[in-house]
Amino acid sequence: MKNDTDKELLSAPYSEEPEELFHQIGKVLARLDSLKHGKTKYFHGFKHTEEDVSVYEEFELKIIEGLSELYLLSLENDFFWIDCSLQVYKNTFKARFQELLIHDPELTENELLKKDYRDLDNLPFFQQRFLRTDKNYIGIDYGQILDKRKETSKDRSNPNLQPNPNLLQKAEKLRYKLERARTEKQEYIRQQFQAQGKMIIKSGNEFILIDIPTVEKRIEIAPPHSHIFAHNGFKLFQYLLKNSTFKNSRQSDIAYFYWRMYNEEEKYIHVRPERFKDWFFKEYQEILGKLKTLDLVESTDRNNAYLDAIEWLKAQ
Helix, strand, or coil here: 131? Predict the structure, then answer.
């Protein structure tokens, strides 16, 4: 399945110049996308063989190594891209603004901050990542490569074939680094607006700025994390997190409690899983994988723990 061009692409060393490396990663992404989807476009029900999957993983590992190198080179060279570090974002903001101003004379620094904030917010919302700078865009998703835990085996000829553990480890390490950088950049942007007496909030599909005094009046009567929880749901979730989640089953415990709280007639949690997971990462610096469905995590012990927590909440 691998031709000579593929072998050359996989064995070629990455550039030490960040912009050239950016485009090299794009070429590897494009080839992987072609290999994965070329046959399935023309053959309905096509299943990838073990040999296919092995080749895909060689490309995925190459991409992860390239992205890791790009992250480091961007630090050394102040190269801005969507998943750069907070330090690079701060160091390049003024220069980016001046360059963008040439093409958009009415652009303001606040408008650029809002645009960057929206782009960062979209990463977990759409569950996709695309290589992007202010000048270049490569429209092939690499988010699915970083989150290998979500991969299913339904399109493989051998459904028991598991992803390469080395690939899983490297993908998880890089995903955590990029997610942490994303939340740090969003927090930094919020701080820039707060210094002006403003706060950025989502209104429909857009982000707008409002004066902080207006927000403070609302916050005084709103419970903590009301954008995620209702009816003292945060208090209930904290209690469950502290008393009823365990190290060897924590992800499944949280998934169960999420769905029970979401499915209540008067919802304790009122957002869908991706928004909840994004909030959970910001709050606890812990990445949740794909939340299992309720039927996969139901158990008598979890049900009893949930009912006990509900009784505890009513007694408060």
Answer: strand
**pLDDT for residue 52:** 77
* Closest C-alpha to 112, from 125, 101, 123: 101
| Residue 127 three-state SS | coil
Please give the distance of CA 145 from its chain centroid, rounded to a whole number: 12
Which are the contacts of 53, defined by CB distance < 8 A and separation ≥ 6? 156, 161
Residue holding tokens 């991706």?
Answer: 274
Which segments of 16-164 does DSSP mark as H helices, in order?
18-42, 50-77, 86-103, 109-126, 143-146
Q: What is the structure's pLDDT at 38? A: 65
Beta bridge partners of 209: 200
3-class DSSP assignment, residue 210:
strand
Task: Using CA atoms of 13, 14, 20, 26 in order, give the dihedral in degrees to the nearest 10.
Answer: 100
Task: Enumerate residues 6+ apart whose C-beta is below 8 A from 118.
Answer: 206, 207
Domain segments of the chain as ranges: 4-201, 233-315
Bridge partner residues of 138 (DSSP): 131
pLDDT along the chain (316 residues), means of 10: 86 95 95 77 53 86 96 97 96 97 94 94 77 92 77 48 79 89 92 92 84 57 77 93 86 95 92 91 87 92 92 87
- The answer to whether 184 and 102 are in contact (CB under 8 A) is no
For residue 304, give the H/E element and its range.
helix 300-315
Length of the chain: 316
Q: What is the per-residue pLDDT for 156? A: 46
- Interatomic CA distance for residues 293 and 169, integer angstroms: 25
Distance from C-alpha of 59 to C-alpha of 132, rounded to nearest angstrom: 20
